[in-house]
Design a protein that fits this description.
Layout (H helix, E strand, L loop, with lengths): L1 E5 L2 E8 L14 E8 L6 E5 L12 H6 L3 E6 L11 H17 L5 E7 L2 H13 L9 H7 L7 E5 L5 H8 L30 H31 L6 E3 L7 H4 L18 H4 L8 E3 H8 L8 H5 L6 E6 L7 H10 L5 E6 L9 H17 L2
Parallel strand pairs: 4-5, 4-6, 6-7, 7-10, 10-11
Antiparallel strand pairs: 1-2, 2-3, 3-5, 8-9
């Protein structure tokens, strides 16, 4: 561990092995993170946040919580930057390592899971498996034992979170793709960037487009299953494949769909028409990762089944200017949560509240007050 005082906060780097991943030969630990706390204090309550792929160790909200008297562990699994190899069951074990560090080494008595952005369904899956594990069959014995001993969090906060990994990818998919191996091949009748189709988009077009997005996800799933079987029969365990054109959510172009305060013709990468032609979410996968993370048919990374198992207080916070998570997404997450004690709050601000320091403070105040209320 390396501890430093940064702007009146104790900032500590942590590196740990996982039950199913040792330290690599070059020296790196599979699980890494940074713990933020008020200088010279050991908070009794701490927050932990993790993402499927994005490095959350320097999470923007960490110092906001620390300055309000809480610990904050920005935690990464072995899959930070390695989304193409992601397997949920191993990621949950890595999150469990961070949870155990908070409890046993940081001395935290109460832990709050923060499911932010894509990490919403990941942290939801962790909490669900800590309540009632179901994924042990996919793990070796040491991993299965560790899964059965996951530490359950005391509170859950969903912050500008996507419903689940397959859900968000499918919502963003360009439904007009007709050949997954040709980034150019397009059905003009379904092209969201064809001005003949909109925006604004007619209800009939929206219905056809959404059905075509789901069909595209299923076509890839069918191919992945068949290709994996073919390769395995030849003694090849897996392969990589590319995914193109995944900034095609109609809501990004048409603000009348799922209305909010967001700017029109915007996504997280800028103009959707430009972003859709560049590599983005899910851009590379192994066959197993597609089936584990992205497939609507087979992925355990869908939010609803995990959220339904919740029995702890939950707060859903959603920024109204978010260009990739929309009000209906937040309401669905709220509806899926099984806890009787749950709350939904819409606040001003973009996805990471990067549009305003005041919006970040407001969101942090809201979450801190809720945590204090549940003490």
């Amino acid at each position: 561990m390396d501890r430093r005082d940064v702007d009146g906060l104790d900032v500590t780097f942590i590196g740990k092995v996982s039950p199913t991943a040792p330290r690599i030969q070059a020296g790196g630990h599979p699980c890494q993170g940074i713990y933020y706390a008020p200088a010279g204090r050991r908070p009794r309550t701490a927050v932990i946040a993790t993402h499927y792929n994005v490095d959350f160790s320097e999470h923007y909200i960490a110092p906001y919580f620390a300055r309000r008297g809480y610990g904050f562990l920005g935690w990464n699994t072995r899959y930070r930057g390695f989304e193409d190899q992601f397997l949920l069951e191993h990621a949950l074990l890595d999150i469990g390592v961070g949870m155990r560090w908070l409890r046993e080494e940081a001395g935290v008595e109460r832990i709050v899971i923060l499911g932010n952005s894509g990490g919403g369904s990941l942290m939801g899956a962790y909490q669900a498996e800590a309540i009632a594990p179901t994924l042990g069959h996919a793990l070796p014995p040491a991993g299965e034992d560790a899964l059965a001993q996951l530490i359950k969090a005391d509170l859950y906060i969903s912050l500008n979170a996507h419903q689940g990994r397959p859900e968000v990818l499918t919502d963003w998919m360009d439904a007009s793709v007709v050949d997954e191996f040709d980034p150019v091949a397009t059905d003009p009748a379904l092209d969201p960037f064809n001005p003949d189709n909109g925006p604004p988009y007619a209800p009939q077009f929206v219905e056809r487009y959404r059905a075509a997005q789901r069909a595209r996800n299923q076509r890839i799933t069918d191919w992945a299953k068949a290709e994996l079987a073919r390769l395995n029969a030849a003694g090849v365990p897996d392969r990589l494949f590319a995914l193109f054109r995944c900034w095609g959510d109609l809501r990004c172009m048409d603000p009348s769909l799922d209305p909010s305060d967001r700017a029109p013709r915007r996504c997280y990468r800028g103009d959707p028409a430009v972003a859709n032609r560049t590599p983005s979410i899910g851009r590379a996968n192994t066959l197993r990762t597609w089936l584990n993370m992205w497939s609507l048919e087979t992925s355990p990374c869908q939010g609803a089944p995990h959220l339904a198992k919740f029995d702890t207080p939950a707060l859903v916070v959603q920024g109204t200017a978010d260009t990739g998570v929309f009000p209906s997404d937040a309401r669905k997450i709220f509806d899926h949560i099984g806890s009787a004690d749950k709350e939904l709050q819409l606040v001003k601000g973009a996805h990471y509240f990067e549009d305003s320091e005041a919006h970040r403070d407001t969101a942090a105040d809201l979450m801190a007050a809720w945590i204090e209320q549940k003490a």
